[in-house]
Fold this protein.
Amino acid sequence: MAIYPGSFDPITNGHLSILRRALTIFDSVTIAVAANPMKNTLFTLEERMELIRESTKKDKKVFVDSFHGLLVDYVKRKETNVILRGMRALSDFEHEFQMSLMNRKLRRNIQTIFMMTDYKWLYTSSTIIKEAASYGGTIKGLVPDIVCQKLKEKYGYES
Ligand code: PNS
């Protein structure tokens, strides 16, 4: 089992692509939503989890959970040592490298597995999608339909 942690504010098709591909390697994946990420979130923890549940409900090998505090402590509680992270461009590399080294410093047996994003999602992130959506830009095809709808509600526009 792998733990796929993140803010997921909100989940995107890029996240779902990594998840689907990871399920060809791992027997199950638990998406672990950070309760208190370093950034302020648009969606509450419960909203972020609900959007993930909705977007993955057909897959019996996907579990949705949340965690407070250190990721490595959560991973230990789940009795695994595998953290899954998606990687896009080189710009992700430094931060991901830093986090994986820190996590391994905190807990020696942690292994972070990186999967490269599909080229289709290379330029997308939850942040840039929220920015486009906040100005009424079309984000169809970049996020699950339910997320598209919720973003419209949050930003109060119709398209
Ligand atoms: O989707 P994100 O925002 O890139 O996810 C980052 C996240 C939530 C995985 C990372 O910030 C995290 O693990 N936070 C929990 C605290 C922690 O363990 N930090 C890393 C070691 S200091």
Remarks:
- The mean pLDDT is 96.
- Residues 5-7, 34, 37-38, 70-71, 99, 102-103 surround 4'-phosphopantetheine (CB under 6 Å).
- The beta strands are 2-6, 29-34, 62-67, 82-87, 111-116.
- Residues 14 and 121 are 5 Å apart (CA to CA).
